[in-house]
Design brief:
By secondary structure, this protein is mainly alpha-helical. Helices cover 39% and strands 5% of the residues. It has a two-stranded antiparallel ribbon. Strand 1 and strand 2 form a beta hairpin. The chain is globular.
């Protein structure tokens, strides 16, 4: 949603990040890869630690908490609105 808003607002959405550093990269739906690459590149998402405490996952099939949504909105505003 934030990617699409940034796009229609004509913000720079060209940044992309390789998702290979996340252990659940393969769980990202094909239609969502570009969105997730952008979100990772602009630090909209930073990942969740795995049980080993050393690797990270995106949890693309999971639900975002209110706190996670608020953090993403804050990061978006800091990057594009302010």
């Amino acid at each position: 949603m934030l990617f699409e808003y940034a796009k229609v607002s004509e913000y720079d959405i060209s940044e992309r990040n390789d998702l290979g550093s996340f252990t659940d990269e393969a769980d990202v739906s094909s239609w969502a890869v570009e969105y997730m690459q952008w979100a990772a590149a602009v630090k909209m998402i930073t990942g969740k630690p795995n049980d080993d405490g050393k690797t990270w996952r995106m949890d693309p099939k999971g639900d975002a908490t209110r706190a996670e949504c608020a953090a993403m909105l804050k990061r978006f505003a800091e990057k594009y609105v302010n």
